[in-house]
Design brief:
The complex is a heterodimer.
Chain A lengths: L2 E3 L4 E5 L4 E3 L2 E3 L6 E7 L6 E7 L7 E2 L2 E6 L4 E6 L8 E8 L6 E3 L3 E6 L1
Parallel strand pairs in A: 2-12
Antiparallel strand pairs in A: 1-4, 3-9, 5-6, 5-10, 7-8, 8-9, 10-11, 10-12
Chain B lengths: L4 E3 L2 E4 L5 E6 L6 E7 L6 E7 L2 E5 L6 E5 L5 E5 L8 E8 L1 E2 L2 E2 L3 E2 L3 E5 L1
Parallel strand pairs in B: 2-13
Antiparallel strand pairs in B: 1-3, 3-8, 4-5, 4-9, 5-6, 7-8, 9-12, 9-13, 10-11
Classes of the chains: A mainly beta, B mainly beta.
Amino acid sequence: AQTVTQSQPEMSVQEAETVTLSCTYDTSESDYYLFWYKQPPSRQMILVIRQEAYKQQNATENRFSVNFQKAAKSFSLKISDSQLGDAAMYFCAYVGGGADGLTFGKGTHLIIQP
Amino acid sequence: EAGVTQSPTHLIKTRGQQATLRCSPISGHTSVYWYQQALGLGLQFLLWYDEGEERNRGNFPPRFSGRQFPNYSSELNVNALELEDSALYLCASSFRATGRNTEAFFGQGTRLTVV
């Protein structure tokens, strides 16, 4: 079974600064997707960014980018120019072709200091 | 296009009763996931349905059950409710292509309170 590990239960960053959230995963598959989801206080889960394993180029979405290291099974999220609205729980997730479906990490609580 | 919809938004039940939660996936999505999120905790995987069949279930007792209908909507049933079942229950749907699911889109959740 695949596992996803987020080793940072909580992170804090000053507004306008850059922060990186870590995620590692374990899989024997070669073809899979990785995602970062955001859950603000409203509790609505929002997809932030996705990465296909076969793509070497790191995905970017405006201020959000990932550092995907396939050999190391690492998938970190970088948030540039942090804004107060970025404060939320961030979940890393994996999906492959197996029967485990979508697997989530335990989440990182991101605090933005004004 | 309508997103994932869950009903009801809030549900209050008495210990020992049964709760039924409903989820309608995004049109074209065949997979439905159910997650439990207790206060301050992460997402605990409950059930995964795809094409009408249960594909996997998490580490929950049998009183947590569900089904997926021919139109791919899904129902989660919790029998013999206990106080610790109080949580936000999230439903997500995704599309399965070439043997692999794509990203999941979430509903707004059902807040279940057991008193």
